[in-house]
User: Fold this.
Amino acid sequence: MKVAVLPGDGIGPEVTREAVRVIEALDLGISLQEAPVGGAAYKAHGHPLPSATLDIARDSDGILFGAVGDPDCDALERHLRPEQAILGLRKELTLFANLRPAKVFKGLEDHSALRPEVASAIDLLIVRELNGDVYFGEKGFRTAPDGSREGYDIMSYSESEVRRIAHVAFRAAQGRGKRLCSVDKANVLETSQLWRDVVIETAADYPDVTLTHMYVDNAAMQLVRNPGQFDVVVTGNLFGDILSDQASMCVGSIGMLASASLGERQTAHGTFGLYEPIHGSAPDIAGKGFANPMATILSAAMLLRHSLGKSAEADRIETAVGKALEDGVLGRDLGGSAGTTEIGDAVLERL
Ligand SMILES: NC(=O)c1ccc[n+]([C@@H]2O[C@H](COP(=O)([O-])OP(=O)(O)OC[C@H]3O[C@@H](n4cnc5c(N)ncnc54)[C@H](O)[C@@H]3O)[C@@H](O)[C@H]2O)c1
Ligand SMILES: CC(C)[C@H](C(=O)O)[C@@H](O)C(=O)O
Ligand SMILES: [Mg+2]
Assistant:
């Protein structure tokens, strides 16, 4: 079993280190190969996703990814910016289905931005489409007829892109509470009207799943009002990006939410995929030693479950994280004082 480890920038290497310690402690004979990505790769090799890194990623059974993003690189031409590395990996490897689970661990209810009785009901899964939408449409700058500058990004979804993510979401709902909420903006956008039509067509294959639809502005409000109403949420790339950061604060912190990005390719061990916390490189706290590594450790658990066929070990990691939280091992993001390594140690002790 081969895992590519791409730590990236800012707190990426700090949180990835802890997840790697957890994987190594399980002693599963996994071979880990590290490669540069993001701003670190640009500075060392002149490109945020060097072809050698892409080859290592492609050749693995699964990828553990930290985060990319570096304020020093914000003025570079877009194709050289660190963020292009994660976008490139998702697109090049056809990782179109991003699973972002949000669940309140026992003991975290009092640390949510919501009231404990509202927060304690959260157990939802956001299925975010990852290969299309306004992210990958034609974009650029142009001059308007009056001579002023204009920026544009084309939003679109093809029928097949919507259908394949809808199938993933319906199947995920079948394995959970059998409720699927599709989030769009069909009252304004044609892209969303097609999304809604295709999701409704796909529903015919899943009569056991209850499908509802919600506009994204209402969904943002409902996530705060009553997040317990959601089981599986399926949505496009941009809406899913925004709603998942919001869901993280409902749970307690962005340092808690893990993710899996999957496609259709099967390896000898499971479904090939990329695993990363939903947060970024957090330049404001990088190098200070108090980034919360739990989201990355939980991403490693998802890697073991989906890509390496090691469900029992994935459960062990998730249980250990839960125990650490119950024992009050909280990072600063959750109002505690535990540092990055201390949190890693606490999870290892409870493994
Ligand atoms: N997949 C990715 O690699 C990814 C995701 C999001 C943002 N980014 C990039 O990261 C950079 C910073 O973006 P941003 O500030 O908007 O988002 P961010 O997620 O990096 O940080 C947002 C806030 O959350 C805090 N935070 C994030 N992760 C944390 C953790 N594990 N523990 C404690 N606190 C944490 C940060 O300190 C910051 O205050 C940008 O360059 C952005 O493009 C990358
Ligand atoms: C860094 C950026 C390209 C990325 C996204 O928008 O998908 C990030 O916000 C995420 O959530 O993984
Ligand atoms: Mg995001």
About this structure: Residues 11, 15, 67-69, 83, 86, 254-255, 276, 279-285, 291-292, 295, 331, 333 surround nicotinamide-adenine-dinucleotide (ligand 1) (CB under 6 Å). The first strand starts at residue 2 and ends at 8. The chain has a mean pLDDT of 97.
